[in-house]
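Write out the bound-state structure for pyridoxal-5'-phosphate.
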Amino acid sequence: MNLQRSSQPVVPAPPRLARRMSRMAASAVREILKVAERPDILSFAGGLPAPELFPVRELAAAVDDVLRREGPAALQYSVTEGFHPLREWVAARLTRQGARVTAEQVLITCGAQQGIELVGKTLLDPGDRVAVESPSYLAALQCFGGYEATFLPIGSDDQGFQVDDLERAIAKGKVPKLIYVVAEFHNPKGTTLSAERRERLMALARAHRIAILEDNPYGELRFTGSAPPSLLSMDDTGLVIHLGTFSKTLAPGLRLGWLVAPPELHRAATVAKQASDLHSPTLNQRAAARLLESFDYDGHLGRIRQAYGERCLAMQGALARHLPEGTKWTRPEGGLFLWASLPRGLKADDLFADALREKVAFVPGSAFFPAEKRHEFLRLNFSNRSPERIEEGIARLGNVVRQHLT
Ligand SMILES: Cc1ncc(COP(=O)(O)O)c(C=O)c1O
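---
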């Protein structure tokens, strides 16, 4: 008998992954972001808010105050629905902005991302159709894909979601169960859905009893123009689920957002959240509520809007100066991103490696398409760099594009 052991370590076969994971392929963007965040790269790839605008001092004071005054409660388990004063704050703010919302309709989530996940979990059966703008926010596509949804890609132009495209699909019998929209400063395009399209979208949803998920992480970051009414404020039949977040206004590391839904859906989402994480972090919720009581939130938002407005203009000016003729871009009224298209058949994916060599990064737009990919687009983030760095980075990008044109 040969008792000698093989020198090769035995590697156990990993467990077979659930079927849904094949619909959640690790996104290429995740890999891109890892490279792009190298310190030597001037990156416009991520979706990071400007860290110098985080209210660090004020938040430290709020955390300190909460821990001193109500430490044990702040460190204890808490209810799934969320800290009531914070729910009241969200309801009051949304009501001031034109929707009628009570604290009971608000569920505090771990960011808007968890809201997307909870809606997928509570509404979607395998094969259910979800209408999504083409392109769309990637992590929403991943989430709905994970629940084995069938995508109904809807065209997109300078005003975002093309409602007439959805009308045509519905007329052909393709009625979605859910419509996913980022109406304000879309990710990746930076576009805003016009008031007229909002009306038509609501009318379609009412006529066919389709739920709408209004994902609104950027609405508070409007630096120009005036806001059309939110879909939530236009809803009189309980079809709109609305998501918001403190990620872009206070800090994404807090992982605090909210879901507003009609009672039955709110209950279902609360049960689903309980099964997934019990509740959002108690200390963070209490600290955010204390901070909002004690500091000038609107003044703080004003500073963010001003900085992002300047950065957005700086990026548009730099694009005009450094990119060759035929390059086009959106003109966002707020948010974090703009969306550029390259001239003469150039593919953003082909530029990426050379851009890294020039020490500049972006996200190739193809990643954001739910079905047929298009390759001429790139997503550029303007919130995370100063106007000077934006000028420098876009000049580098211009060099890369020119090299590829010749
Ligand atoms: C459209 C959209 N929805 C949701 C999120 C997730 O935000 P949060 O940090 O609140 O989870 C993002 C983040 O970039 C986003 O762009």
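---
The longest strand covers residues 240-245.
Residues 297-322 form the longest helix (26 residues).
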